[in-house]
Amino acid sequence: MRLLFTFCFLFIAFIPCRSQSGFQIDHNKRKIVIPFKLINNLIFIPIKVNGETLTFLLDTGVEETVLFSLDDKEQVSLYHLEKIMLKGLGGNNAAEAYKSSRNKLEVNGFTDKEHEIYLVLDQEFNFSSQVGIPVNGIIGYHFFKNHLVEIDYDRKKVTVYADNHPKIVKRLNRHFTKEPLLIEENKPYYYATVESAGKRCEAKLLIDTGNSDAIWLFLNRTNQVELPAKNIDDFLGRGFSGNVYGKRGRISRFTFGNHSFANAIGTFPDSTSIKSVNFVKDRVGSLGGEVLSRFSVFFDYPNHLIFTKSNHNVNQPFNFNMSGIEVQHDGLEWVKETYEDPGAKGVTIKMGTTNEGRFQDNLRIKFELKPVFKIYNVRAGSTAELAGLQKDDKILKINKQNAHTLSIEKINELLKSEEGKIIEMEVDRKGHVYTFRFQLKSII
């Protein structure tokens, strides 16, 4: 999985941030429940910003709340703006942004009336196309900092509790694994045992719900982690400051909760891509959604604790996009479709001089807006590249199925489904239609 679906946006704001009181639960509620969309292991929730409902990625890997795409909204009011610059993953360039204060954020009775927001104006920084739904921003630490927060990946619900009710405490003690959680620079860290290429260490990892991969390891931060001998160079996606590159390979083992995971796919960003990141002491990597989604997780920031209980996905293998292509949503287009309307009079045709063979044509034509998908990146040496696919090819069909009937998630599931599977892809390249066939091949 790529950073296109990762979004571990760690940034430095060059203007100091004022402290915030944070979210509070309405006084008459013991808890609030927020349904979420889960796309490629990432959590998306609706939050009202000054009365306008926006979609946010819920990301423990960021401190401040960031807005970066408001194209689908007619009007969003933001107050008390001042210009700043942001830096993060992906090179040296800083992104122009604005800081806005005294905003009201609210979801289902969970409210912050004095919230600071960072608005990024660069339209290149917009990952709606990578997940297939409009996404307006990211929210992190201030959502979690005051309360016990449960993320149930199975039921696709976030629950925020007003206090540690005895029933909740009993449930956690009986059914969950309790471990210490370090909160440093307003982000959660966890010590996991990691084995790779014959080396074993206790690794300090950021727990990052905004990272859809399993585990990231930074080789320039420690000599106790080795790159697996079998690895590939890969484009990892885009961060605040540009493209991110690195390597991928399967690591021997790592731990989380009461489970030990073997043969997981490790991601190793190169030193250039992460040199602008502000690291806390001893941090060597991140744990992401590919692992977290195999659990129900309680984050208890006030008491520096994490509680985990595995779900039915815990023993699923760690799969990899074996095609070598990255696909993104590229807007909408009008598609003509025929459908049957049983109530329509249609056209009656008689065969001969009798009524035999009479039939009624109930077919109708309609136009609907459907998603368009294009190839965003092709990995060098991959089976897709060798077959002839190129960046910016518009996908028309996959295995004879019209692409507009699919979603980003379904396409990604297909591309990591099983080694040896044949993929036939029909594409439009500058007005010409081509068909390519390639085989999914596990190379790590």
TrEMBL record:
- GO BP annotations, alphabetical order: proteolysis
Do you know which SMART domains this protein is assigned to? Answer: PDZ
Query: Which GO molecular function entries does the Swiss-Prot or TrEMBL record give?
Result: peptidase activity
Q: Which UniProt keywords apply?
A: Hydrolase, Protease
Domain (Peptidase A2) spans 54-91
User: Which superkingdom heads the taxonomic lineage of this protein's source?
Assistant: Bacteria
Entry keyword annotation includes Protease: yes
Q: Does the keyword Protease apply?
A: yes
Q: What is this protein called?
A: Aspartyl protease family protein
The organism named in the record is: Flavobacterium sedimenticola
